[in-house]
Amino acid sequence: MAAQELAELGAELVDCRACPRLVAWREQVAEQKRAAFADEDYWGRPVPGFGDPDARLLVVGLAPAAHGANRTGRMFTGDRSGDWLFAALHRAGLANQPNSTHVGDGLSLTDCWVTSPVKCAPPENRPTTDERDTCRQWFDREVRALPVQVVVALGGFGWDVTLKTFGWDTPRKPRFGHGAEAPLPAGDLLPHGASLLGSYHVSQQNTFTGRLTEEMLDAVMLKAAEIVRS
Q1: Which H or E run contains 2?
Q2: End-to-end Cα distance, the chain
Q3: Domains of the chain
Q4: Residue 158 scores a pLDDT above 70
Q5: Is residue 97 scored above 90 in pLDDT?
Q6: Taking a C-beta distance cutoff of 8 angstroms, is the pair 223, 92 a contact?
Q7: How far apart are CA 124 and CA 82, in angstroms?
Q8: Helix, strand, coil shares, percent, the chain, to 5
C-alpha cells in the first residue's frame, strides 16, 4: 500500500507548477546547464523522495540541488552532498552502495527514505516561507505513507519544517544542532511518535570547511539505524 501511495504521489508531484519563482528557476537551470553537464538532459521538474517504501528512517534535506537532483531527477544524486550522504548510509548498512551518480545506477536503500520539504530547486538554495508552506502538502503525504520511527534532519531548515509538520508549532521548540535530539509527539501523522535527530547539512559549505566530518555524520546515521533496528 505504501509503495502505491508513494508512486501516485510522485506522479502527481512532477507536474506541480504551484510556485512561479521556483518553476522559472528550475527550468532556467535546465536550459542553461552547467558546462560539465552540457550534453545531458536535465530533469528540471519537482523531485520526489525515494528509497524503501517500508522505511522507518526518514532523512530530510532542504531542496533539490540545481545541478544535482534538478539534473538527475533523484534527491542527492549526482552531487558532492550526495556523495557524503550515501557513503554514510552505506556505512550504516542502509544503502547498498556508497555513491549515486544517476537514476538507474543500482542504488537502493533499506529501511530509509530520502526527501526534502521543498521539491524544486530554489535560487541560492533559499526557498521563501510561502514556497515552503505551499510544498508542505507533498511532505505531509510522504510522511503519512511511511511507518516513520526516526527522522534525521540535515540542517536547520529540515529540522524546523519537521518540527512544524509533526506538531511543534510553538516558540519554545527544541533547538537545532549537530547531534541534537527531540521527541516527535504522537499525532495524526505519527500514531506512535518518533525520534528526531539533527545533523549539519551535507553541503560543501560544511564538508569542505570541516564543520561536518565523516565521523560526525556517521555518529548520527548509526544512531538512527540503531533506533529503527531496536
Answers
A1: helix 2-13
A2: 24
A3: 2-229 (3.40.470.10)
A4: yes
A5: yes
A6: no
A7: 18
A8: 40, 10, 45
